[in-house]
Amino acid sequence: MDADALKQLVGDMLSALCVSIDTIEVSSGQRTVVVVSTPDSNLVIGERGETLQALNAIARRMAEKRFGKDTAGFLIDVNGYHEGRLQELRDKVKLLAERARTFNHEVELEPMSSYERLVVHEMFAEDPDIETESRGEGKTRHIVLKKQNSRYE
User: Fold this and answer.
1) Global pTM?
2) What is the structure's pLDDT at 153?
3) Which CATH architecture has domain 3-79?
């Protein structure tokens, strides 16, 4: 899906929700991110990002329906919320990985979204010391960090 179509889709969705939009930009890197700037960020983000997470799910379904299944791999970020949250997550996970590495034991992370789990798995994909494993179901799904080639009793 091209950037203009994605901007239009997200803009239409937010306008239907009566959200004021300053700008919408699309950045394509490792992942496509629709960066929205709005004075209504509290309304769009919600408590702990739950509203934004729901809007992302709806937007991906809309894109899938309009443009096909291969086009639904994007993320909406409002006023840098997701990027800030992901940076906090990366910093915390690095510290917890050091704990797993140093003390040679499993470290369970808090439940997180599928996107956040993907980011954590990618952080350690090439790490020779730490492996990641997803556990749990639904809202309790989380990641466990553990030192590779270790046995836990």
Assistant:
1) 0.75
2) 45
3) 2-Layer Sandwich (3.30)
